[in-house]
Amino acid sequence: MTSSELWTRATADRYDAEEAENSSATALGPALAFLAELAGDGRALEFAIGTGRVGIPLRERGVPVVGIELSEHMAAVLRRKADEDTLPVTIGDMATTVVPGGFTLVYLVYNTISNLLTQDEQVDCFRNAARHLEPGGRFVIELLVPPLRFLPPGRTAVPFDVSERHLGFDTVDLVEQMLVSHHFTRDGDDGRYRRANSRHRYAWPAELDLMARIAGLELERRVADWDGAPFTQDSAKHISVWRKPT
């Protein structure tokens, strides 16, 4: 079993509502165009496909999509929207689960590689992507740059959202490269907040490049967002593309 925390039924049932803004056509359009271009005429495999936020609209663009998902509850929400023939999903972890066939694209979005809490498992994730890729195929990851520049000396917490219905901050363990995201969400109008947190292992882009090299992949491109903006020292996240040699 992977070290990833297993998403519960309650979390899965409210996931789409909480991610509605990030699931709009406007928000997803650049990502879908980016991924569809890399997939070309081949098939795409999404690691940690969740409720199908990206996989379903990518399939609607004509890209055959297959998914791997650890949480049966998340997959059950996806299955309400797309049947098995339309979008096959295998229950398992993204570091070791193998599905049949080859793919021109394997992708892992929305910071999800950080759900693997050990370096070894993150390396295995790269190896698993390479295992599924056809020669010349690409592995794509979307990941935040660790927010360490925002940590004053002696502090371990970084706020990332302060809004009317949500308060969020990360606490960071610099020695273990662990980050815990804390969320306080107001669901109703009675003033009460629901508290949740999730653990993540952060990794720098250079560390991911070494993982890719271990898996036999080569860095092809790194940009700051799905629109292709240049990646700089001030970029908050990166979209990285590694290629399997022919």
Give a quick summary of the entry.
With 246 residues, the chain is α/β, with parallel strands linked by helices. 26% of the residues lie in helices and 30% in strands.
How is this structure best described in words?
- The chain has about 250 residues and is an alpha/beta fold.
- Helices cover about 25% and strands about 30% of the residues.
- It has six helices and eleven strands.
- The protein has helices spanning about 10-20, 25-40, 55-60, 70-80, 120-130, 205-215, and strands at about 45, 65-70, 90, 105-110, 135-145, 155-160, 165-175, 180-185, 195-200, 220-225, 235-245.
- The strands form two sheets. It has a seven-stranded mixed beta sheet. A four-stranded antiparallel beta sheet has the order 6-7-8-9, with no helix packed on it.
- Helix 1 (about 10-20) crosses helix 4 and helix 5 (about 120-130) packs across helix 6.
- The radius of gyration is 18 Å and the shape is globular.
- The two termini are about 30 Å apart.
- The mean pLDDT is about 95.
Quick one: biggest sheet? 7 strands, mixed
Number of strands: 11
Number of helices: 6
Cα end-to-end separation = 32 Å
Give the CA-based shape: globular
Element order: H for helix, E for strand = HHEHEHEEHEEEEEHEE
Read across the widest sheet, the strand sequence of neighbours is 3-2-1-4-5-11-10
How much strand content do the residues show? 25-35%
In the predicted model, the low-confidence regions spanning at least 5 consecutive residues are: none
Query: In percent, how helical is the residue content?
Result: 25-40%
- Supply Rg: 18 Å
Structural class: alpha/beta
Q: What would the average pLDDT be, to the nearest integer? A: 94
